[in-house]
Amino acid sequence: MMFKKLKKTDVFFWVVFVAIIATSFIFRITLPSQDLFVGNEIRFSDVDAYYHLICADYTYKNWPDVQTFNPQFDWPTGQKVNQRPLNGWLIATIAKFGGSTVDKVGVYWPAVLGILVLIPCLLLAWVLWNKWAALMGVACLAVIPGEFYGRMALGVSDQHALEVFLMCWFVLFYVLSMKKHWVWAFGSGAFLSLYIVNWAGAPILILIVLIYLVIQSIINQFKGVDNKSLSVVTLIPLVIGMVAFILLRPDEIMYVLFYGGAAAAPIIVAIISKYTSKLKPYWYPLILFTVVGLIFVGLWFGFNQAVKYAIYELQGLTGTIGASESSLGRTISEVQPILWPYGEFTLDIIAGNFGFILLFGLLGLVALGCNLKKPETTFVFTWSIILILITLMQRRYAYYSAVPFGLLTGYFFWWAMNKIGWRNYSKKDKKKGLKGQYFSHVIAAIGSILLISACLIPNGYLTTREARNHPYQVTQAWSEALKYLRENTVKDVGVISWWDYGYWILRDGKCPVPCHPGGGSTDKVAKFFSAFTTEEANKIADELDSKYVVIDYQMASQKFYAIPMLAGKGKLTEQEFNDCLLIRLYASESGIEGYKEVFESSTKYEGEAQVKIYEKYTVLPEPCNCGK
Length: 628
Known about the structure:
- By secondary structure, this protein is α+β, with helices and mostly antiparallel strands.
- It contains 27 helices and 13 strands.
- It has a five-stranded mixed sheet with strand order 5-8-13-10-9, with helices on both faces.
- Strand 6 and strand 7 form a beta hairpin.
């Protein structure tokens, strides 16, 4: 198996794995580096990366502290930040003690994690199935495009790369605790605790574990297998995760209740299993679901607001964020269903995220589902199914489901090759001697080439294109605008722009912002830009204590639809569109009354500067000549 001494025949395996690592390095670091390093400037390729850099900046200067409140977010009231600080804290810590800077560490951080995640994935598939299935699986992951690549490449310094990295290590150790020895559960607990302090959406992984716990305990009960071992290997990581969260955020009661309840689940399972062991097997699930239902009812009446908030948070993590027409979530592409974005069916997005790995991964899932003989196999099957389901709900989770799709493609590859005679020969083939073996090898070789080519070549092509495409990167026009804000504006005065650009303005422009990709007063800013009169806009600007306005050509074109939507105005007529403050500003030569243009970028879009900055000024009333 995987821990035997390396043989000469295994050299090919490790050479190919090193080549896969090198390929991942080229895709994630070499290719995009040509666009991210512009002179002495590092232009990160993701908007949310700037949020984590802001948090890392604070820790770098005040190590080991983390910032929990930033007065320049949601200006002028300020906002809680960094509730799950691990990603920014690690960037700052590595930079501080590695003699580097936050920017230099931050830009490489997600790409390095994207390369290193192939290690736990290789080991996981190897432990579960076979080293050749593992090798094919990580080869698929190295070239898979879409969300998985887009969140684990150079300059995408969000927490998602760390999420996937920690999740894969957790799954590996959890599987080892079931397959090898329960002591491995402490490793799964360590990675689960890190996962919990990295992302507020960690309950999704906890729910997967709990669903598996229930399913496997029912299977065990019908087989007459004791649930003690299952409860122990599940209890250990859940308790470690709960303790880690309580130490970090004891004030977040809803999450404390959730993690505490999750840690109690294995104990409840073990107790009910023990006292129903002499009954008919069907009594166990009936009693278990009854107890769970009674606990939920008790929580509903005892902690009603916390339970409602938990349901709301879960809906935000897995469903469409916001049901109203003016909901911010309705304008965010990554939280749209992968097959029905904005209510229209399409296969383009899911195909662009997986390619043929989607087909072969599903075939691998079916093959795995037909062979659920061991607890660890059932867990991986459950984990895969749920990740696929939440990807259908929100396209962003393709960066999660890519892992099981890639590994299951490797499993299908190994399963199919065995079926057509790659390793095992029938007695009939053996009687035929070399001729039968040769025929089996030829069929297997052709099948391998076709399968590998279908999985790797198209996806490699798509990933190569994505490596040079950075739609969320600071452009040259915005770089000039941010420099102007940094050097020529009054400090501690708000800058109004669309929420997409809030983190850029705050970090690189050194100015406070009323709204940003994390929220803030987005509705008020939408009402400001869609105001039909300057007086209406001025009231909002004064309320937001803001003096400067930054707009770009995208706000006046493809992004404009979201502004009246979030302002609650619906679809505008042509006249209303032209009357909006944003359009009047962008179309003006040097500003409008009350807002003078102080900057325009050197790069143009259809004859107009791509980015413009305006300064709000007070219009004095004309002197009265009454009586003269």
